[in-house]
Design a protein that fits this description.
heterodimer; A: mainly alpha; 0% strand; B: 2 helices; elongated
Amino acid sequence: MAQRRSRFVPEDLPAPLPEETGPLEAARVVEEVRATPVVEEISGEAGVSAWIRRSAAGDRQAFELLLKTYQSMVLRVARSLVGNPTDAEDVAQEAFVRFYRSLARLDAGRDPVGWIYRLTVNASWDLLERRRKDRRLAEDFGRESMSEGRFTRGTVEEADLPELLRRSLQVLPPRVRAVFVLREVEGLEVVDIARTLRITRITVRRHLSRARQKLHEHLAHSHPELIDRQ
Amino acid sequence: MRDLKESGLSNLYSRLRDEPIDPFVRARLVRRVMAATLDSPAAAPARPFVGAWGWLAAAAAAILVGLGLTVLEHHPGSPDADPVRIVSVQANGGVHIRWTDTGKRQYQLLKSESPADFSHAERIAVTGTHYVDPQSTSSQVIYYRVE
């Protein structure tokens, strides 16, 4: 069993996804930043707090450091949720732009990981919804599936496994997929997933059960050796 | 059966957690995000939108296409009405521009090579998003105004 990582997920985060950045106490933030010693890289909660305050005060270098710190996590989640690398980059960009605009309302003393997860999931859902409305999702996925000869039923090379696993996630509905990815890929606890997605723990467990059932059936049919070798 | 299914899937999908991200992809994301956030400082106060009766004050976005790096600059025409926001920089250096849609009217996006003269501007879109292909531009600076 993979080791679970308990992450801080703030319960009283700002209201989700404002279109515009809200009013800021800029002068107070600037004064706080001036009093904060410069550090070269993020390390621990104190480092994160300093760089969030600096970013909120307009320090572009500080924001770039935050971006570099969390970008792998965001790209990984986005890739699992939307299924292809190009869309994942768009989602990651949108998530970070939203993060940037909400920086000033984020409590600098708290780990922003839960908030970033939420922004990433929301940006992914928005993209999937746009795709659905454009009626492109089914066409794109159908075309890609048809052309993915290497993922036909049979043995999977080790190098192809990540892509096959991500592709298999697309059989899940978006909300069920998000719960499964946060749990099994990101290693979040059920309670943290519930806070991040603002759903009940019962719903999280129900989605997890449904996801496992569906993925097990899917993989057992298409690549039974993946199930058997576990 | 259930435990086997759960542990088996956990072991499978936890592998995605440790998969390295291509350094080129990471560098490109940093470039795109930094460019996309240039036009909206984190410390800027929210600007109220001016309503349906008045004409929409001009807002322009200048796009500087440099060598290998797209730099975006946003020049709002009015502090009270600023519907233009650059939302996405594509991997090839192209730019998506989106502007506020109140649901009451649509805006036309004008493209010009001069920030002062839009009399000969090209009308290029009437919907909320426009994509700029850097390969299609002769100038290094393109000005946009939404009306």
